[in-house]
Automatic annotation (TrEMBL):
Record text on subunit structure and interactions: Homodimer.
Gene Ontology terms describing biological process: nucleoside phosphate metabolic process; ribose phosphate metabolic process
Family per record: Belongs to the Nudix hydrolase family. NudK subfamily.
Domain of life assignment: Bacteria
Protein name: GDP-mannose pyrophosphatase
InterPro entries (alphabetical): NDP_pyrophosphatase, NUDIX_hydrolase-like_dom_sf, NUDIX_hydrolase_dom
């Protein structure tokens, strides 16, 4: 029996603080901890819509197709602002597989054929409702049917980057890749390369 079976949380109030690009709320929660003590907790939560990301792997060249784009939060904390990431995007009402097929095409120009769902994860459950669906797909050069680079109407400015899978762990260790979802998928790829062929 887990000690948390005695714990419970009741939401007392919610107030919206901002509602532009994403909604930010402040909550008050009556939390009864595992010792039976009650506390009034205050938390702020970003309400993010679900998203999806994908590892694009080319076994003939032993490379992964990534993207580089500007990220303001990285700049604010002193990290490289032009981040190398796996293709990703919000579901925008689509099911996760349809959304990631769309995003892969928009960002990289690759039309993915067989998409494999891997897992889903909350990226920052202490402050965000964001759930990301993780996928992988094997590609080859014939699958590239457009330039990619993102949508002009969304002001996306994306560079397509091809990296040898054998180099990605060193890039992570050096800090060249510091996006969590990308690190998760690249580590998965290194551990499962034989299953990607």
């Amino acid at each position: 029996m887990s000690k948390f079976e005695k714990a419970k949380a009741d939401i007392v109030s919610e107030k919206t603080l901002a509602d532009q690009w994403t909604r930010l709320s402040t909550f008050e929660v009556d939390y009864t901890d595992s010792r039976g003590e009650q506390h009034r907790l205050k938390r702020e939560v970003y309400h993010r819509t679900p998203a999806a990301c994908i590892l694009l792997y080319d076994p003939s060249h032993e490379t992964v197709v990534l993207v580089r784009q500007y990220r303001l939060p990285a700049q604010l904390v002193g990290e490289p602002a032009w981040m190398i990431e796996v293709p990703a995007g919000l579901l925008d009402g689509d099911d996760p597989e349809a959304a990631i097929r769309r995003e892969a095409m928009e960002e990289t120009g690759f039309r993915v054929r067989d998409v494999r769902f891997l897992f889903k994860a909350m990226t920052s459950p202490g402050s965000s409702t964001e759930v990301i669906h993780f996928f992988a797909a094997v590609i080859d050069t014939s699958d590239r049917v457009a330039d990619g680079g993102g949508l002009a109407e969304e002001h996306e400015d994306i560079e397509v980057v091809e990296v040898r899978l054998s180099d990605v762990m060193a890039m992570i260790e050096k800090g060249d890749i510091h996006d969590a979802k990308t690190i998760m998928l690249l580590q998965w790829a290194v551990l499962n390369e034989a299953n990607l062929r």
